[in-house]
């Protein structure tokens, strides 16, 4: 399957996913007084690199909130898979499940088939990270086709803090046609 990529400045799509509280939430909705949003798409419970990254992101969540950036992580896992994954992750930011293949297509992420039933029982997204600005436009995108490519969190957070500083007047990059 080929993917249609979101482009910098595009309006982020309306995608609703499930939370363990039984709510459906829109990936771009914000709370905690924030006006930007980070959407972290991860492969699922079967991926130890995702588990490590989700746990590492926990120590940066307050920096994100201080910069006005809300946070959610989401995968194509089922509710049961996410419940089981909670044994391996220690996070206090929202995490959701049930990303459909149509949702993955709308996000322009790479989709993989499981290598075996031991890996998982469904197609899943490869890692991606999206930053949505106050206008619901895609400000930053990092889309990978394998689990080994992830942004350096120190550099990412400091870069987002710099972008958010109004004195820097930093535009959305990558929009030249």
What does this protein structure show overall?
- It is a single chain.
- With 177 residues, this protein is α+β, with helices and mostly antiparallel strands.
- The protein is built from 5 helices and 9 strands, in the order E-E-E-H-H-E-H-E-H-E-E-E-E-H.
- It has helices spanning 48-58, 61-66, 79-85, 101-107, 153-164, and strands at 16-19, 24-26, 36-41, 69-74, 95-97, 111-112, 124-125, 128-132, 138-143.
- Strand 1 (16-19) and strand 2 (24-26) form a beta hairpin.
- The chain is globular.
- 31% of the residues are buried.
- It holds the Pfam family AhpC-TSA.
- Residues 6-165 form the Thioredoxin domain.
- This is Redoxin domain-containing protein.
- InterPro entries: AhpC/TSA, Thioredoxin-like_sf, Thioredoxin_domain.
Q: How are the SSEs ordered, and which strands pair?
A:
Layout lengths: L15 E4 L4 E3 L9 E6 L6 H11 L2 H6 L2 E6 L4 H7 L9 E3 L3 H7 L3 E2 L11 E2 L2 E5 L5 E6 L9 H12 L13
Parallel strand pairs: 3-4, 4-5
Antiparallel strand pairs: 1-2, 1-5, 3-8, 6-7, 8-9
Which sequence of SSEs, written as H and E, runs from N to C? EEEHHEHEHEEEEH
Structural class: alpha+beta
**CATH architectural arrangement:** 3-Layer(aba) Sandwich
Strand proportion:
15-25%
The low-pLDDT segments are: none
Total individual domains? 1
Query: Which CATH class applies here?
Result: Alpha Beta
Number of DSSP E strands:
9
CA distance, first residue to last residue:
25 Å
Mind describing the biggest β-sheet? 7 strands, mixed
How much helicity do the residues have?
A: 10-25%
Using only CA atoms, what is the Rg?
16 Å
**Number of helical segments?**
5
- The dominant shape is globular
CATH level 4 superfamily: Glutaredoxin
Return the average pLDDT rounded to an integer.
94
CATH fold name: Glutaredoxin
Strand order of the largest sheet: 2-1-5-4-3-8-9
